[in-house]
Amino acid sequence: MSCWEWAMHAFILAGLAAIAFNVTLNLRVFSRPARVDARVPGPLSVSVLIPARNEAARIGPCLESLRSQAGEGVEIIVLDDNSEDGTAGVVAGLGFVSGAGPLRLRRGDPLPEGWTGKSWACHQLAGEARGEWLLFTDADTVHGEQSVATLLAHARRRGASMLSAWPEQVMGSWGERLVIPLIGLLILGFLPQWLLALFQRFPALARPLGPAVGSLGAANGQCILFRADVYRAIGGHASVRAHLVEDVALARRVAGRTAEGLRLINCDGVGLVRCRMYEDWRGVWEGFTKNLRPAFEGSPLLFVASLSVQFAWMILPFFLLAFRPSWLAVVECAAVLGIRFALALRLGGSLWIGLVHPVAHLFALAIALNSWRQCVAGRVRWKGRSYRSST
Predict the structure, then answer these.
(1) Which of 108, 269, 290, 308 has CB 3.0 to 4.6 Å from 167, enough for a Cys bridge?
(2) Is the peptide bond before 43 cis (omega within 30 degrees of 0)?
(3) Highest mean pLDDT pick, 96-105, 167-176, 251-260
(4) Nearest 5°: phi and psi at 207?
(5) What is the DSSP string of 250-309?
(6) Angle at 51 between CA 365 and CA 371, to 5 degrees
(7) Residues 206 and 223: beta-carbon distance below 8 Å
C-alpha cells in the first residue's frame, strides 16, 4: 500500500472516529422528555400555532391529535396561508372558528415581498398568540397524548429558551426510507450539540466566541417551542423573513446569544410527535433541494467542504472495498454501518436501510448538488411559490 493510500485511510478513520465520538456525546444531551399525564393547567400558558398552506389532505389528523389538549392552559390557532385546496373548510369542520376561543382559525394576509411563506404565516400566528410559550408545529405532524404538557414540562426543566423536538419520521416510499434517516446522521454525527450544551452550562466559555457560537444551532421546524419573550426579543420570524430554512436560522440566533443566558435545547420526540415529511421521491427531492444549500447561508466553501467530507468518510470506504480491497476498507465500512445501525436503534427506522447506506448517501449528495444548482440560478420553488435565493 502506497503512502498516499495510508494517508487516505488515516483521514477516513480519523473522520469516522470523530463522528462516532460526536454521536456518543450528542445522544447524552439529546434526551427524550418524560411523558406528563396531566393537561396544561390554566391560566393560558401555551399557544399552539399551526401554519397551513394546501394541507387539506393532511391537517385533519394533526388537529384531532391536538384538539383534546386545548383548554384554559392551551389555545390552538391555525393560519390558512391562502390555500387553494379547501384547507380552511377542513379546519372549520373540526370546530375552529374566527374570533376568540381556544380553537381559532385565522385567514392569512397576502404574502409581502421579501418574505417566505412559512415565516410570514408564523409571524402572523405569533401576533395572534396570547400564551407565555409559543409552540410552532407543522400541519403534517400528529401529536401523542399530552404532548403539549410534556414539551412544556421538559422546556421548563431544562431551562430552555427555545426547545426543538425531533419527531418520529413516518416513511412510506423508498425515496423517503433512503434519504430521511440521514437527517439524524447529519444532526447527531456532524453537529456537536454536546459542545453547545457545554457552553450553555458554562456561559463564560462562550463569551470570547460571541455570536460565532450560533453556528452550533439547529432545530426542526416541525415542532418548536419558544418562550414568547425570547421569541420577541430575537425578532421572531421577522428576523429571518427571507431565509428558506427559518428553523435553523432561528436556532442560530438563540445559540448565538448563549453568553447572555439563552438556551437552545434539542430533544428526541420519538413516541411524542410523529411526522411524514414527504409522500414520495419527488417530494423528498424538492423538499431537500429547498433546504440543503440555503442551510449554509452565505458559506459556499463550508457547503462544499461538508459534501466533500461526507463523501470521503461515509461513501468512499465502500468504493475502496469494491475496487481496492484491504482490511482497512473493511474496518471503515463496518464503522459506517455501525454508526447507521446505532442511530436507527435510537431514533427509529429500518435497520436494513443501513445496508444500502452508500446508495442512500449518494442520492442525498445528488439532492445537495441540485440545491446548489437552484441557488446559483437564483430561484427556489416551494408550494407553488418562487423565492429568491443566493449562493
Answers:
(1) 269
(2) yes
(3) 251-260
(4) -60, -45
(5) HHHHHHTTGGGT--EEEEEEEEEEEE---SSHHHHHHHHHHHTTGGGTT-HHHHHHHHHH
(6) 15
(7) no
Q: Is residue 152 within 8 Å of 133, Cβ to Cβ?
A: yes
Domains for the chain: give ranges and CATH numbers: 3-27+285-376 (no CATH), 31-173+181-276 (3.90.550.10)
Q: Which residues contact 321 (CB under 8 A, 6 or more apart)?
A: 329, 330, 332, 333
Calculate ∠ Cα 145-151-155, nearest 5°.
Answer: 165
Whether the Cβ atoms of residue 77 and residue 189 lie closer than 8 Å to each other: no
Average pLDDT score, the chain: 92
- The torsion region of residue 71 among left (phi > 0), alpha (psi -120 to 50) and beta comes to left
DSSP string, 84-137: SSSHHHHHHHTT-BSSSSSEEEEEPPPPPTT--HHHHHHHHHHHH--SSEEEEE
**What's the whole-model pTM score?**
0.93
**Alpha carbons 126 and 20: distance in angstroms, whole number:** 39
C-alpha 315/C-alpha 75 separation (Å) is 47
